[in-house]
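call fold(seq) -> tokens
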Amino acid sequence: MPRVPARAPPPGRTMSVTPLTPAPVFRGRIGRDPRSGHYAVPRRYRLHLSPGHDACLGIAVVHALLGLDEICPVTFLDPVPDCPDGGHSALRPLYEASAHHYRGPAVAPVLSDSWSGRIVSTHARDITRDLARCFPSAAGPQLYPCGAEGETEAVEELCARSADPQALPEVLDVLERRLRAHSHVLGDRLTAADVEVWVALVRHDTPQRAAAHPALWSHVRRLSAHPAFGRHLPGRPA
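ret:
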């Protein structure tokens, strides 16, 4: 099977936050089921991320926080899909190898397996959880702390509601109350919940919202100044 070329983003190219067509859901997991054969082996897996997709933005931040450049390389696709259906021709061989007679769009995010030449997962939250669980960083943050699973999922659902303009004010109010009480969304340490909030809200940053929710927007802007976050924003150095 032709291999998807491994490409780094060209100089000056960064992750943006314009949504693309949602990916079909493949939900293999690394290290979850021995029968799947998806063992947690460094350099076996590759991420394929597209600038402009919020799910890709979150994965890129988690990948950077964990320092996984050598363990799980990333291929950055062109920011504008080159297929009429919103897909990427570079991903077509992976989709066709993974689903018989596949005719849908070949879109990101994709976690692929170099051993089989097939897709493991296109489900962003599964991907970030598996990266953090299977390839933890001794020096990096504990993104999914034990005992906080329910709170993390609640924040994920809250952030999903932020896409609805009518629900956004309530979402901002809830997060403002959290961040008035703590330095981070789930307490006093950086977790995946902070990544979720940043990805959902960074594009909504305006002076008016910052004035109405000062603790929340101070947190979002502080995260933007962190290299693992800010380097994926338009206009920031890669």
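The longest helix spans residues 168-181.
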